[in-house]
Amino acid sequence: MRAFVAVDAKSAEIAKLQEEMMSYSGWSAREVRPVSPDNFHFTLLFLGETSDAQAEKVKEKLAGIKFEPFSITYTGVGAFPSVSNARAIWVGVDDEGAQKLQALAAQVVSKMSEAGFRPDKPFSPHLTIFRAKNRHVRVNVEKYARTFGTDRIDAMHLKKSDLAPSGPTYSNIYTVSAALDGRA
């Protein structure tokens, strides 16, 4: 299976932002594909093709990660590889939320290295909201230099990705909930 470790993003404000950006930018369905709100997430570590035996080891390692719930505020937009040549369009998070996501990602990377997994790139706290179908999409980041709501991060998941022509479908295989009483 194609697997990754992630935290879900649940803010309804992000779907509203997608609608606003589509309308303002005049993008067509041939140019960009919005990420379904059901698929909003922050990938902490992409694992790639994973066997059932590896997935069991991943679950065992994830069970050892302790974290407290935290809030993030969505702020600003950006694009990879650049705003003038976008392939992925994303929403950022506030500094404090980014630090907490980075700390959680570092725990995941540490535990997953024990299971033989390594990151393909450093973690960057961003929420992908569009995928461009060609590299000629431009993003007006100045127009969206504001906040777009908040989210509470209280669980992380081992997710499976099933690819289809209409886009990926993600399902949670295993969940680690945050320590709600403050004792990790």
Strand percentage lies at 35-45%
How many distinct beta strands? 9
Radius of gyration from CA coordinates: 17 Å
Going by CATH, the homologous superfamily would be Cyclic phosphodiesterase
Structural class per helix/strand content?
A: alpha+beta
**H/I helix tally:** 3
Mean of residue pLDDT values: 92
Task: Provide the CATH architecture.
Answer: Alpha-Beta Complex
* CATH level 1 class label: Alpha Beta
Strand order of the largest sheet: 2-6-5-4-7
Number of domains: 1
Name the helicity range. 10-25%
Low-confidence stretches: none
Gap between N and C termini: 30 Å
Query: Would you tell me which CATH topology applies?
Result: Cyclic Phosphodiesterase, Chain: A
- Label the overall shape: globular
Order of helices and strands: EHEEHEEHEEEE
The major β-sheet equals:
5 strands, antiparallel
